[in-house]
Amino acid sequence: MAKKVTIVGAGNVGATAAMRIAEKELADVVLIDVIEDVAAGKALDLTEAAPFGKYDSNITGFTGNYSAAEGSDLVIVTAGITRRPGMSRDDLLSTNMGIMRLVIKEIAAVAPHTILIIVSNPLDAMCHVALETSGFPKERVLGMAGILDSVRFRSFIAMELDVSVDNVQALVLGGHGDSMVPIPRYSTVAGIPVTDLISPERIAALVERTRNGGAEIVGLLKTGSAYYAPAHAIVKMAESVLKNKRKIIPCTVYLEGEYGIRNLFIGVPVKLGEKGVEEVIEINLTDEETRALQASAAAVQRLVDDMKRL
Strand 188-189's sheet: what is its strand order? Predict the structure, then answer.
């Protein structure tokens, strides 16, 4: 029997992820959106593209019909609004918190054994909402952040050195925002540490560009945000879960003492398999890296505290 993935939110990120999942034939895909017929239209378009893509995944779309998610092995949540001119951070947090609660309540009722990948922003805070609303064990609630931030860092390193991106590995820890913590010491090119290949000044510039990677794209697009790289990041996580690959991937997960952080979602490397988070990988950090990670965790904690008063 084919695996089943439900994607809640059929915008650019959700629809692109659906396309990549179908192309790789990882699962049948259900798209759900609140805007009437959008999910059905995109599902039909993807179905009609199947002869070109040579995939046989079944793709369907529904307007607010969460019963279609029944039996899903994996649910990806991209639903939510983006921050608009004049909108405060509290407004964004309050609105998306309400959307997330509604979505997760519906999903948990029809797919109580699924694994959740949260993509909606502010991501770290939304993972808390998903965990609390679903009642799922922490291993089955993940956030897509570290993998995206790390791949951006990889891209910038490859551009800097004019080498294949396939040669580059990189690691970014922490919250999904400007407090994230790229770790050059654990980033390599063909196994060579980037600290041996790039000057400290240029590394600092690449770190800063990584922290502002999403904002840079928003600034260029003017009326939208990134979706190609986020969709690919989602699919990498989904593949490790659906195929039980047990890949080590930086993800946003709930920590209970690891890295000295407790009761908080934060980005760290984890082993991902069919049960979700199979192991949190703890790496040795310098004092400076530890302070940066603690500062990032503090920024996430402030968001979580803000939610409690809204």
Answer: 168-169, 188-189, 192-193
